[in-house]
Design goal:
The structure is a single chain. The protein has about 280 residues and is α+β, with helices and mostly antiparallel strands. The strands form four sheets. Strands 1-2-3-5-4 form a five-stranded antiparallel β-sheet, sandwiched between helices. Strands 6-7 form a two-stranded antiparallel sheet. It is globular.
């Protein structure tokens, strides 16, 4: 048996009958009862524990669905495989309603990590610190936007002079943020690749960067990289939990953090997109 199959056997309590690599970090493993699980390996310290805690926290809301979590051990995470289906309007409407319920389940504070999750977590391959705060504009600027702005400048992806427009946006966040809202329970990395349209007609969410945040952030992420049937998702959401007036004008503010993360990870193109968003928000 491989080290991977040993971990699977311990976490599931079943013998392994087959393995298939999907990528360098992912594999499908078949158990002796025919069940198929997905095994993910991440060498970043605490990443598997953070993801497992995030999935369990999302599931605990009893609304949006996630793959069953069998457990984590060291660098390994074991979850159920989700048989794939096709996106559809009815599934999108249900997903929107379920996402509203997830957000309404709340969090102890902005930046609060999931129970059992580490303070130093991740968004994709990038570190993301979950340091709780009580004021969303102050927390979002200090814990999300500015740390990645500094990293982008330090590595040369953004020029120091360009950073000033993002800093001005952060200074104006109290007036740009809209009405104050309580901390929502966020998926935290809700781009379309983390939304699985399952064969049973329901959506499953994977790869969370879960934390307490502003509910408009998850919705802005869905729009940033495109989500099938997005208008139906938003329709379902609004039927359950209408968004505050002016939310469409705030989308760019909420997209700024993921754009800066992508600028640090993937380069100048995303930096230019972040600058454009910041200029639009400041002058609009």
């Amino acid at each position: 048996m491989t080290a991977r199959s040993d971990v699977v056997a311990r976490l599931t309590g079943r013998a392994v009958s087959g393995e298939r690599d999907i990528s360098g970090a992912l594999a499908e493993v078949t158990l002796d009862n025919g069940r198929v699980v997905v095994v993910k390996r991440s060498d970043a310290p605490g990443a598997a524990r953070a993801e497992a805690a995030g999935l369990r926290w999302l599931a605990a809301a009893g609304t949006v669905r996630v793959p069953a979590v069998h457990g984590d051990e060291g660098a390994w995470l074991v979850i159920d495989r989700v048989p794939q289906g096709r996106p559809g309007r009815e599934a999108a409407l249900r997903f929107g309603r379920d996402l509203a319920g997830l957000h309404a389940a709340g969090a102890p504070a902005f930046g609060a990590p999931p129970p059992g999750g580490p303070t130093d977590a991740y968004i994709g391959l990038a570190p993301m610190r979950n340091e709780p705060g009580t004021d969303w504009p102050e927390w979002y600027a200090g814990q999300r936007v500015l740390p990645y702005l500094r990293r982008a400048v330090d590595q040369g992806t953004l020029r120091p002079g360009e950073a000033a427009v993002v800093e001005r946006l952060c200074e104006r966040l109290p007036e740009l943020a809209g009405p104050a809202e309580p901390p929502a329970r966020l998926h935290g990395d809700l781009w379309s690749g983390n939304v699985l349209w399952a064969a049973d007609g329901d959506v499953r969410l994977i790869d969370p960067a879960a934390h307490g945040g502003h509910r408009e952030t998850d919705l802005a992420m869905l729009r940033l990289f495109g989500c099938p049937h997005l208008e139906a998702v938003l329709d379902g959401y609004q039927r359950v939990a209408p968004l505050a007036e002016g939310w469409t004008e705030r989308v760019g503010v909420h997209q700024l953090f993921p754009l800066l993360v992508h600028a640090v990870l993937f380069g100048r193109g995303y930096a230019e997109q972040a600058l454009s968003m910041a200029r639009s928000a400041v002058t609009g």
